[in-house]
Amino acid sequence: AAAAGKPIKLATLVPQGSIWDKELRAIAEEAKKRTDGRVTFRVYPGGIEGDDQDVVRKMRLGQLQAASLTVDGLTSLDKGFSIFSVPRFFASFDELFAVAHALTPTLAERLDKQGFVFLGWGYGGWVYLFAKKPFYTPEDVKKLKLFVWGGNDNKMVDWWKSNGYHPVGLASTDIMTGLQTGMIDAMPAPPLIAIALQWYRQAPNMLDLPMGQLIGATVITKKAWQQLSPADQATLKALAAQMQQRLEREIPGQDRQAVDEMSRRGLNVTKPRDPKAWDDAATLFANTMREKVVPADLFDMARKAREELRSKH
Amino acid sequence: MDADEAVAPPPGSEHAPPPAGIEPPDAEERGAIAWVHHLEDAVPVLALLLMVALPLAEIVARRFGTGVPGSANFTQHLVLWVALLGAAVAARQGKLLALATTSFMRPGFRREAASSFAAAAGAAVSALLARASVEMVLVEKQAGTVIAAGVKAWVAQLALPIGFALIALRLVWLASPRWWARGVALAGLLVGIWLGQQPALLEGKPAWPGIVLLLVATALGSPIFAVLGGLAVLLFMHDGVPISAGPAEIYQLAVSQFLAAVPLFTLAGFLLAEGKSSLRLLAVFRALFGAISGGTAVVCALVCAFFTIFTGGSGVTILALGGLMLPALLAEGYPERFSLGLLTASGSLGLLWAPALPLILYGIVANVPIEQLFLGGLLPGLLMVGLNAAWGVRQGMRSGVSRHAFRPGALGRAVWEAKWELLLPVLVLGAFLGGFATLVETSAVAALYVMIVKTLIHRDIAIGRPLFRAFRDCVALVGGVMVIVCAAKGFSSYLTDAELPARGLTWVQANIHSPWLLLLGLNLLLLLVGSVMEVFAAIIVLVPLLKDFPAAYHINPVHLGIMFVANLELGYLTPPAGLNLFLASSRFQRPLLEVYRAALPYLVLNGIGVLLITYVPFLTTWLLPAAAQ
Ligand code: NA
Ligand code: NA
User: Fold this and answer.
1) Are B198 and B131 spatial neighbours (Cβ–Cβ below 8 Å)?
2) pTM score above 0.90
3) Ligand positioned closest to the Cα atom of A150
4) Is residue B495's pLDDT more than 80?
5) Residue B65 to residue A50, Cβ atoms within 8 A
6) Which ipTM score applies to this complex?
7) A61, B135: Cβ pair inside 8 Å?
8) Distance B497 CA to ligand 2 centre (A)
9) Taking CB atoms and an 8 Å cutoff, what residues of chain A touch B148?
10) Is B381 helix (H, G, I), strand (E, B) or coil?
11) C-beta separation of B158 from B88 below 8 A
């Protein structure tokens, strides 16, 4: 173990000054204190090191050592994470947390095979659709140029196309430019992000129907991890777990506050019409994803964890 | 001199013809070598053609619902091939941008020594980058990333090691016709490979000897990309960051969303500059403004601006139009010094008008909406062109130059003759600002449009060998510029990595409180940087350092962008190293000092323009949508 080793460079898309950025900086500070300066972090927020796929490449090359990735980056490491992209799979934050906890050992093991160590979950909140013009039904959405995660080999782009939508694959760092140039006119986003990055000003109509949840996780390369002493490793794991717990307490409330705040500032929150059409669209989407996108064993494991929680209530 | 021949050096070229004794190897090639060269040309030319075809196919296929799977991803990855293999062609033609120091030295041992040292340093950096690229390719191969339709990312990345290796070999070969000097350059190449094998060698060691070495090599004529790329890798090694970080940054930039527009618009501008389009446009503007005193000077500013919008830098404009415009001005009785100055300055007019490439690149790097930069640049661009035109009118009145009577019939005929050229800006702005096509798709439409106009309608370029040669020269030009942009990205990324942007902002905030003072500081900094650095490279390196300033000082980000580009443009006219000064000196065969004197009034004039743009933000923000003001 290197005494006062090189700083661990951690990159992330989360906006500078956001709740997640503050959390990361807090645990960086705490880690330094508790390890007597042996473990230090440099945090690069706001996508300055690139989109998740760029960050993953830089971790593999050793240019970066750690990252707080969104589900997009995590999925590029292991397909299993795509379970969290299944639309309307979760009916509540509690279901999300229960499934995340149940899947942690399996997903951590799968990450390990890719050369990464799982540290802890991060949560972005419910994902809603935002658009330039008001919209109410899935048919309305089919007329919109819809942002989807771009990057390499994104099968979802083809899925959207073949189901009659007009997806535009972009890097998430290009959403603002895309909205302003008319390249896209709608995108899914969690309220906390839409407010932090001011996206809602460009797309001031939100459909009050959660499409899914945005999840993320903090990971570190095995190479960097193995240079830490077991005691320092334990400290980092404990700090990451604490961060995860704080986010589980904080995010659900802040998520709703962000919607209220945006409404006060001019966001038009609309109610969906034709609930059956929305359900059908979501079911069609979810059914395509099992096996084709999400490995079947993980899909079933997640469903089991969710049903267990549902049966308790 | 005729406009047709003036296509050689790329924009940003500070390059005089290669030292005597070295002919570009194209002249007399036979047999196997000719075939290798054809292949080297054909690969990037094919990549560029595919870059035109894929976005167009996507536009068509989208009408039928599905689009072309992965077309955007493929287009983005083709940029790598055009850039790196284009740069290799430029290296073979001896056209990589470099200071032409050795061409000012007398032939002899000292000149050979200087150029072999410069080549050795360039070869060392290229070999090191090739070695680092191999590492990136291997890691990507193991990760197994797929671009689309089963094509692996590592295959696309092969352009990097191949391109840099070819450049290294060319630098060695072209170092000198003498074998001992080639030997020196070859030693540099081997040092580069050896350094690549020992990445930990320089960790924690002082970086300054390497920096000094690189700067000396650049002064002696090492390619510009080598100093930027060399600095990046050297500093990464010093910090213990893997050298593959350099290629990784290049890859990240090359495949970014909008960069594909740069080679495609350059292609459109490059083909436009071939043949007689400039004559047709000249006739239109002359019929419009020829009747006023100083009309031809106004016409000159407008024609140059029109070309620069599409060619993106001053290089092509001065080279392509200078030979046409200078005799026209002199024949009408404008003084020689005035005319020389006007043409030198006009080479960078138009850089603020859509879809000028510096604006696009600024938008990409600063994450400012490109559309807003286009709108914001309209009035400032008009101001700059207007100032130069007004200066021309003043001179016209003083010199009592001849005027042409205004004849509506002549105007009508000229417009009709030039209708295809005049439609180009309408097409481009309509497609992009009208939301019909993305920026990259628009640039592909522009390239195809110019290709059709020049080959099928006007027949300025014959299909077949002449068209292929035009493509090849365009690819070399694009590659020469892009390889600098890429190397600058590596250097800029080191600065980000070292958290310099954040530290810089903290320092500035502690010391400068007034936004006006900050802007003045920026004016001076940008003038200095613009006078020694290529405009694209300057954007890549400086913008990340400055991008948090607008929020911290309540400066409109679009205003900062327009001021930034206008200011860099001014650097082109600033002695001793301003780019336009060198280009004009070489194009018009006038001593550099004479060009300095001729350009001085324009430096002052355009300086006033830049100050107005800087301190009257309204000029930029007036046309912006309310939300962006
Ligand atoms: Na990208
Ligand atoms: Na970086």
Assistant:
1) no
2) no
3) 1
4) yes
5) no
6) 0.87
7) yes
8) 5
9) 152-153
10) helix
11) no
